[in-house]
Specification:
homodimer; mainly alpha; 12 helices; DNA-binding; activator (chains A, B); developmental protein (chains A, B); nucleus (chains A, B); transcription (chains A, B); DNA-binding (chains A, B)
Chain lengths: 263, 263
DNA sequence: AGAAGGACCAGTGGTCCGTA
DNA sequence: AGAAGGACCAGTGGTCCGTA
């Protein structure tokens, strides 16, 4: 039985491919299935490399176009970026905290991270209400439109790349809070960084999917707070790869050991 | 009580706006609500006019890129474009036919139109099955991907603008086949063209929506064959406008005549 | 004049990679 | 080295308008 896709998570960077190529990939433990994905990825990268370097557009002034709509009430309940007006700092990085623990220093904790997901949900509900009033198409997910709305409403600390990056961590928090809490305590104790915690969140999620017929989409959709988030690509790929591994294991145990039972 | 939005359907081209501007608009019967939409539309048109004329790219040869995948079984059950190989004609135009009636001459009938919707559904199901097998995102609606798949599978007579154009006609056929059949017979008897029939399909649909709390999205979603189609913009707008009219009528009858009953 | 559909365009989902 | 997020890009939903 080859290394399964989950174990491959801890092997990133060990492939023959340049390290950069394998980032966020599911790993090659599954064999042919993942070669296809990896090949598509390579082609994409190549296309990109044919183009010039990224344009850099900086505008240090305020965007006056919608300044009037800004809402300066900062209901950022994490440590945020402090009170510096007009400094436009980044948010403080996350650290692994236990449930209930407040991050000290220029850091934000994981309860704060999960709180951001709840805030996005509130913004979605507002966007939905406006759409319904106007008789317009009503989003069922947290879309670009919702992120734009959040920004206009003053929640400049919410952005799409960040929220998408940690969706599966929030999923575990929603689907099995006990497991999520345990994982946080364990990773904190080991002194791991946020990236390691984030990686570690995949495994219990795939285990949940295994118990529910591998249908990660319906698992997301069945949970009221989770259903508004797109299933992350990598989580979907992991579930698929593991389902194939499980099926292969089952069928080989039938053809090898199963004979004794069947006849 | 001003002309309601549905009656306004038969008034297209009577507005003070240039005729072209009002095409596919809901009508101005509703007042302020529709002024906003019309204004947005005008701005859009203006933006477009600032740009140059459309580029014209013609390639009269075959697109060899995916010729190998072509499927020459023509299961077009309508009159289609006949057997001319490599002629690349358009489909014959639709005419208003009664249920069961086959169009004669270079025309296609409405049963054939509805059959195209069923074919799209079959193509969607195939795309969904492939996506599930591969563990990829699985579309729930007839998307660009499905139209592309249909074309590759040889159904070159299916295209997005056509299918979107008549979605609400198919909706009526799904939701109230009796009413749909009656409308077809009536419009045929009056010698109306397809455009007139298409316009006439809106009214009974809005009446259905009225009976179901004006929620056209949930009406579509509740029907297994209809749920795979996006609700057409104009139908959504008509339902919204009529809901507002109905609410206004109800509230004015409360404030005017309702007094007698309430006190 | 009525109709079919190639082609366009604004804004999407997805995430890379220059930045701090 | 680890992380936050501006910015990019391929492919979408929507439908106009040059064409037959």
């Amino acid at each position: 039985n080859p290394a399964n896709a989950l174990d491959a998570l801890s092997q990133e960077g060990l492939s023959e491919e340049p390290v950069q190529e394998e980032k966020e990939m599911v790993g090659s433990g599954g064999g042919a299935t993942w070669e296809v994905v990896a090949a598509a990825e390579r082609r994409k990268k190549q296309r990109r490399n044919l183009k010039g370097h990224r344009k850099v557009v900086m505008d240090n002034g305020r965007d006056d176009q919608e300044a009037a709509e800004d809402n300066d009430d900062d209901d950022n309940v994490g440590n945020g970026t402090g009170g510096g007006i007009g400094e436009r700092q980044r948010e403080h990085p996350f650290i692994v905290t236990e449930p209930g623990e407040v991050a000290r220093g220029k850091k934000n904790g994981l309860d704060y991270l999960f709180h951001l997901y709840e805030q996005c949900r509130d913004f979605l509900i507002q966007v939905q209400n406006i759409a319904k009033e106007r008789g317009e198409k009503c989003p069922t997910k947290v879309t670009n439109q919702v992120f734009r709305y959040a920004k206009k409403a003053g929640a400049s600390y919410i952005n799409k790349p960040k929220m998408r990056h940690y969706v599966h961590c929030y999923a575990l928090h929603c689907l099995d809070e006990e497991a999520s809490n345990g994982l946080r305590r364990a990773l904190k104790e080991r002194g791991e960084n946020v990236g390691a915690w984030r990686q570690a969140c995949y495994k219990p999620l795939v285990a949940i999917a295994a118990r529910q017929g591998w249908d990660i989409d319906s698992i997301f959709n069945a949970h009221p707070r989770l259903s508004i988030w797109y299933v992350p690509t990598k989580l979907r790929q992991l579930c698929h790869a593991e389902r194939n591994n499980a099926a292969a294991a089952a069928s080989s145990s039938v053809s090898a050991g199963g004979d004794h039972l069947a006849f």
